[in-house]
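note to self: the first set is below, dont mix up w the second
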Amino acid sequence: MPLTRPGVRPRPQLRPHPRPRLLRLPVALATAGLLAAGCANPSVGSDRDDPTQPVTLTFWHGWSNSGEVKAIDDSIARFEKSHPNITVKAVGNVSDDTMNQALRAGGSDAPDVVSSFTTNNVGQYCSSGMWADLDPFMKKTGVVKEKVFPKTLLSYTQYRGRQCALPLLADTYGLYYNEDAFKKAGITRPPHTMSELKRDAAKLTRRTKDGGYQQLGFMPNFRLYQNSPDRLFAQWGPRYFDRNGKAQLAKDPSTRDFFTTQRDLINAQGGYRATEKFRTTFGDEMSAQNAFLRQKVAMHMDGEWRGLMLKEAKAPFNWGVAPMPVPDDQADAYGRGYLTGTIAGIAHSSQHQNAAWELVKFLTVDTDQVVAFANAIHNVPSTNAALTSPRLDADPDFRTFLGIARNRHSTALPPSNNGDMYVLSLQDFSYAEEAGKVPDLDAGLRGLDARIDADNLQSEN
C-alpha cells in the first residue's frame, strides 16, 4: 500500500518515478469489454429509482489514512443528516483497477458512487460509458456547471461533450523555496521567469570540496519526485492535440522551448550526469529524507500538501511558496500552474442513480461541504464559491495554491480515449531526451507524435 502524506490522500503510484496510474488491461480490450457488457449507452437513471425512498448506496473511494477516512466519514454523516432516507456504505482504499473490474462485471457487488485520484482515465470512463453521463442530472436539478466549477477543473472531467465526472477537490503545483538559502545568496524574491530560475539555480548551487554537490539550486531532472514532464510542461500552456485529436507536439514551438530550457537548467548546474548522480542520493519523497527537507535542493516543485508536511516535520529552515516560473515570452502568465485532482461520478450499473446523484452533488457542489472537506485534508477546493470562501484555511502558503487554481492560465492534461498512454509516451521520450539520447529533437518530436497517434488509433479500433 502506498505511503500517505499526513492529512492528504496518497498519489497514484508515483514512486519510484512520478508515473500516472494505468489500467492493467490494454485500453482496446477494456473498452471492448465495456461495450460488450452493454454499457456504451447506459440509462440516464431518471427512471431507475425514486431518491425520496429509503435506499442504501455503496460509495467506493481511495482514501486510507485515518485522518482522511475520518474526513470522508464526517462528510457522509453530514449528507445523511440532510438526506435521512439515504444510507451510505463507504468502502475505502479502493484502487482504480479494483473499481474498474467491478464496473465491468456489474451486478449487486458493484458500487453506486465512485471516485478516483487520477484524471488521466476520464476519456475512457466517458467514451466507454463506464461512468454515467451527469449532464441530465445537473439539468434536472438546476446545477449550471459552468458557473459552479473553474473552467480548467471542468475540462478534465469531461470528454468530447460527455460529462461523466465532476471535480472533488483539486491539487495544484507550485515552487517551494528555502528562504534562508535565498538570503545567503542575495536573492530577494522567488523567480518569475525561466531565465530567472536558471540564474537563481546557479547562484544557489553549492559544491563540496571534492567537486560534488552539497546543495543544488533546482533539480530539473524528470525522474525526481513530482517532476513528471507533463507537470513541468504545464508552465508553457501546451496544446497536445489539434481539433481532430491528432498529436501536435512537434508543431507547437513551446515543446522545443520546454526541452531546450530544461536542458539549459541542467547544464547551468553541472550537466545531466552530475545532477542525476546527485539525485540518486536523495531519500524517499514522503520520508524525513526528502531532498527539500534535507536542504539538498533550494527550490523544488511540489503540491499543496507539502506545506503541511514541512510544518509537521519542523523544517529547520525558513521556507516560502510561490507559483512556478513561466517562459520569458509568457511573463504575463505568471501565477499559472498544473492542475489535477480527485473526481467523482456514478457507476453506469447503479440501480439507484438518482440517489447516487444526490450524494455526488453534495460532495462536489455544496459549498459548505467542499470547504469543510478541503480544510480537513488540506487539498484545494474545486468550486468557484469554495475557492473564495472566508471559511477556508487562512494559511498564506496554502492560499498561494488557491491563487494558482483560480488563475485563468493554469492548465490540466486533456482527456484522451486511451487514458494516459500519451503521457507515458511523453515521459519515456523526456527521459531519453534529458539523457542526451535524442540526437535530433525535431525528428524525435515528430516520432513522438506518430507514436501517440498510433496508440490513439489502436484504441479506437
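second set (the one i keep forgetting abt)
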Amino acid sequence: MPFITLGLEQFIQWKYGVMGTLGVSLLSLGLKIGSTNCACAGALILALLFAPPAD
C-alpha cells in the first residue's frame, strides 16, 4: 500500500506541482484523522487544480 501512495504522490507532483501534492496530502490526512476541515481544504485545492481554465 505505501508504494501505491508514493507512486500516486509522485505522479500528482509531476503533473500538478507542489499544490497538487499539498491537496492530496491534506485530503488523505483529513480522512485518516477524521478532520473534515482538513479534508475539505485538500478537496478544494484538488478541485481548483482539476478545473479547466476559464476563457
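remember for set 2: The radius of gyration is 12 Å.
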